[in-house]
Here is the input.
Amino acid sequence: MNTGTKLGLKIGLYGGIIAVYVSVIGMIEAFAERDMIRGVVSLGHVLLFTIIVTTGYLAVRSLDQAINPAHVEDKKKISRGQALFTGLIAGLVVAAMIAILALIAEPLKVREVLVNVSPALLEVLTLGQGIPTGAVLLLVLSALLGATGGLIFVLPPIGRKAITSAFIWVVFLGMLSDLIRVTLSRPSIPSAIPRLLVTSNGLSVSGAVIVAVAAALLAIYGRTWQAKARAKIESLPLSGQKAVRYSGWGLVLLLLVFLPGIVGRFPSEVLVNIGFYVLMGFGINIVVGMAGMLDLGYVAFFAVGAYSMALLTTSDARLLGSIQMNFWTALPIVIVITGLAGLLVGAPVLKMRGDYLAIVTLGFGEIARFLALSDWFKPWLGGAQGIIKIPNITIGNFEFIGPQQLYYLFLVASLIVLFISYRVKSSRVGRAWVAMREDEDVAEAMGINTVYYKLLAFGMGAMIASVSGAIFAAKLGTIYPHSFNVFVSITALSLLIVGGMGSIPGVIVGAAVLVGLPELLREFSEFRFLLYGALLIIMMILKPEGFIPSERRARELHEEDRAQDAWLKQAVTPAANPGSSD
Amino acid sequence: MIDVVRTRFMDRFSWVGLLLWLLRAGVLILVLWGSINTLLSGKYSIDNWISLIIAGLAQGSIYALIALGYSLVYGILFMINFAHGEVFMAGAFTAYFVARYHASTGFLERNPLLSVIIWLAVAALVSTIVAVLLERLAYRPLRNAPRLVPLITAIGASFFLQYTFRGLYGSGFKSFPEIEPLQGTWSVAGVNVSIVQVVVLLAAVVLMIGLNWFVERTKTGKAMRAVAEDKEIAALMGIDVDRVIVTTFAIGGLLAGAAGIFRGLYQPQGISAFMGFIPGLKAFTAAVLGGIGNIPGAMVGGLFLGVFESIGPNLILEGLGIPGANQLRDAIAIVLLVFVLIFRPQGILGERLAEEKA
Amino acid sequence: MPFFECKDLVKDFGGLRAVNKLNLHVEEGEIVSLIGPNGAGKTTVFNLITGFYSPDSGEILFEGHNLVGMPPHKITELGIARTFQNVRLFPNMTILENAMVGQHCRGRSGVWGAILGLPSYRAEEARIRKIAEEQLAFFGTRLIGYRLEQPASSLSYANRRRLEIARAMATQAKLLLLDEPTAGMNPKETAELTELIGKLRDERGFTILVIEHDMRVVKGVSDRVIVLDYGSKIAEGSYEEIAHNERVLEAYLGKRATQAEAEA
Here is the structure.
C-alpha cells in the first residue's frame, strides 16, 4: 500500500471521527435548520462537507510532509492524480464512518443513549435520500469532495486562495443572511437588490454566485490593490497622510455611530451584548493580558457592579431601605466600591503563582455566587429572586430603553476605556506590568513595587467590569445570581485569548466573533461553550498569542522557535568579524 | 536588641499583611465561636455527629479518589489537570446507561454485585480513555510551554468535555437506580450507619491501598516516582517518560471512574454532564490540603474535606446563626480551598515541591 | 556615617549557614571586589543586601538606613542596584524598554498622568527615555540606534550583560552590585568591561561592589578585595595582599596544594 493510500486512510479516520462526533452531539442537526443557499444546501450539510474537504486537504498535506522532510532542499511535487486519489480515499473513509453510523442508528436504538442521533440527523447524513440510496450518494459525494480537498493543496497559491476565500465568504454571508436581509430591506434600497442576494432562509443561488466570484476576485487581486493604495498614500506629503489616516478613523467612527440604525433592532440587541463583553474584555485584558494574572473569577466584579447599582437605584423598598439614586450619581460610587472589591480580591493572591492564583480567583467567583444565592444574604441581596425594579438609565428626560439607545452608552464607555487602555499600556505603568509579567523578582529589584502594581491591575480591571455590570442591571431591570456564573468569566477569558492577550484590537474582534456569532445564530449559541472550549485548546496549541496578537506576546510565546531560528541563521551566515562580539 | 525586634516586626508589616492577618484571625474566631455555640446548645447528639462524620468520610473517600488523580498528574507534570472533574463525570455518566439497562432488564435485581462490578469496569474504562485522550491531544503538545498555557488548555478541555457529554447524552438530570442490598442501616456500637456509606468507604480504601501498593512496589510505580522526581534523569536511565505519563493519567482516570460509581451508589441523583465541576474543585482542594503531589496527602485531604464539609455547616455556621446553613455546604468547601491556597499552599502534609521564589 | 556597611550578617538555610557573621563595608567611590570559591555565599550576600532574603540576624546599613526588612523595590529606590549571575533581562521587551524599566523608581507618574497625558507625565517620559538612552550609549554603539527597538533576546551574550549593567545604571543608583559581570566573556570583552567598570566609577560616580572569579578583572578594578569562604570573611586587603595570603590560597586550592606550592 503506498504512502498516499495509507495517509488517506489515516487522516480519513481522524476526519471521520470528527464527522461522527459532530453528528452525534447534535451539531449537524442543529445547523441543518438554517439554509446556506436556499433550497440547495443547509449549514448542517456545509459543516459535513467542510470536514470532508478539509480531511482531503490535510491528507494530501501530510503526504507532502511525509515525502518532503523538513531538512531536504529539493521538494518533490505531488502530482494532481496522486492528490486526487489520496483525497478521494480520505473522503471515502469519512463517508464510510458516517454511513455506518446512519446504518446502525435505527437497529441498535442508538438514540436511547446518544440522544441526538435523531431522524432529522439521519436525514441530513443521507442527504435526504434514506438509507440505501443516501449512503451510496454520500460515499460518492464524499469521494468527490475529498478529492477536491486534495486537489486544492496542489493548486498554485492563487487558485487556493481564490477558492478558500470564495468558500469562506459564501459560508460567512450565508450565516448572516438574515442580518443582510434586514439591513438591506429598507425603502431607500430598491428591493431587487436584497432579493438578488438573499432569501428568507439563506443566500439565494444568484447571491451565492455573486459572493463567490467577488470573494475570489478579492483574493486574487486584493494584494495588488492594497499595495497600490498604500503606495499612493505614501506618495502623499506627511500632512496628506495624516489626513487620510484621520479620515479613515473618522469613517469608522461614523459607521459605529450609525450602526444601530443600519442593522435594525434585533442585531442592535446583539451589539449591546457584544458591548458588555467588549467592556469586560478591556478590563480582563488589564488583569490577564497586561499584568499577567489569570483571574478566573472576573465575573465577581461584574456582579458587584451590577448588585451595587441595583441596590442603590432600586425602587423596591424591601431591601436595605430605599435609596433610589439616579444611575449617574450612583455610578461613581459603584465604581469605587467595585474597585475596593478588586483590591480585596487582589490582596490575598499577591504572592501566589499563576495556577493557584487562577483557582483561588475562581473560588472567589463561586463564593460570591453562593453568597448572592444564599438565604443568609437574602435580606440584602434578594437571594434566588434577586433584585427587581431597577430603573432605566435616563439623561434628563431621555430614557435609554431599547438596545439601539443602550448601544450608545456602550460605545461611549468602550471608547473611554479603550483610550485609557492604550494610554496606560505604553506608559510607565504598562512597562511595570510587562516587566512584572516577564520576571517578577527582577522587576522588584528594578524598583517596581509589585504589590502596588498588582493591586492596581486588579482594581482597574474591577472598575471596568463594574461599569458593564451597572449598565447590565439598569438594562434588565432585574438581576438574579444565576446571571453571574463562571461562564461569564470563561467567555471573557476566551475572547481575550482568541483575540490576543494584551492586544486591544484583539478584544474587540474576539468579542465580536465569540459573543456576536452565538447571539446572531441560534445554532451556535447551543454549542457556544463547546466551541469556546475547543477554541481555547486549539489556540493554545497552535496560536497562543491570539489572532491579533500584541507583538510582544507573540515573541514571548514563540521564544523557542525564534531562538532556534536565530541559532540556525547564525550557523549559516559566516561570522562578520571574528573576535568582535557584535 | 529592641532595635532588632522592632525591625523584625516592621519586616512583616504592610497593609496587605495586616489585612491577611485580620482575615486569619477573624476566621479562626468565627470558627471557634460558631462551634462552641453549637456544641453548647446541644442541638445535636453524639449520635448525630457520628453519623455526620461517617457520611463525611464516605463522601470524602470519593473526593480522595478524585484528588489522587490531581496529585498524581501534578507530581509528574506540575500542571493542574483542570479537566479531571470531567474525567470523573464521563465514567459516571456513561455507566449510568449500563445501570439503567441492568435495572430495566431485572439484571440488577438478580445480580446486584455483578452489576456494580460491570458498572465499575465501564466507568473506569471510559474515564481512563478520556484521561488518556486529554493527555495525548491537549496536554502533550504543550509539555514545554510556559505554565499558564496548559492551564488555559485544561480549562478549555473542561468545558469542551462538559458540553460534549451534554451533546451526547442530553442535558437532563439522571439518577442511578437504587440497589436493594445497600439500602438501610446497620447498627454498629449502638450507632446507626447507612450501609451504602460503609460500603463506599471500604471500597474506596481498598482502592487507595491498592494504589499505594502499586506506586511503592511495582516497577511501573517506581518509574512513576522516578519521573516525578526528575523527568530528564529518568529518561536518561532508560525510562519511557511518555509511557509513564500516559500511565499516570490512566490510573488517575481509573480511580476517578470508580469514584463516579461510588458517587452513583452513595448519591444516585443529579447525574448530568455538569456533575464534575464542583466535585472537581473540591477534590482539588483535597489534593492541595494534603500537599499536592503527595499521595497519602491526597487521601487524607479527601477524607478531611468530606468530614469538614459534612459537619461544617451544622457545627460552625449554625452556631453563628446563619440561616440555611446546609445550602452553604458547597461554599464551605470552596472557602476552605481559598484559605488553604492563600495561607498554606503546601498543604498539611507538605508539598513535594516548594513554592517558587527567586 | 559609613556609606555602606554589613554588621554581623547571618543567613541560615535549614542546617546550612550560608553567611556567617559577615562584616564588610564599602566607602563611597570605592570599587570593592568580593571573591571566594564557589558556594562561598557571595550571591547570597547580594540577595541579602537587595532584600530578596531576610537575614537571620545582623544589620545592613546604607547611608544611615537599615535595609533589613525593607522590600526590594524600596532598597533600589534608596540607591542600590544589581545585576544577576545568570543574566536576567526582560527578554521580550526591547532594549530601550529594558533600560527604561531601570528608571522606573525615579519616576512618579501613575495612571492618571498617563491617561490624561499631563505635561508633567510627558516630560517625565521624555526624561526617562533620554536617561535610558544615555546609559545605553555608555557602551558605545552596540546598544543604540536601530538596536533600541529590538527585543532583548536578540542580543549576543556579551551585549546582554552590558544591557543588564545599563539597566542597573538607569536606576541612578549610588551603589552598584555586579554579580560576575564578565562570566562567559572572551578575553577581549573581559578587558573592555574591566576598563568600563573603572569608568563607571570615574566618569559616572558609582560605587561598585563586584563579585568576580576572573582574577585579572579583580586585579584591574579593585581598590580593595574581600574574600569569603563558607560564608565567612577570611581576608581583606589590596589585591597584592590577597594574592599572597595563605588562607586565601588554601580556600581556592585546598590545603595540600597550598603546602605543595609553599614547598616548591
User: Anything to note?
Assistant: Chain A touches chain B through 58 residues (CB under 8 Å). Strands of chain A lie at 35-37, 41-42, 393-395, 398-400.
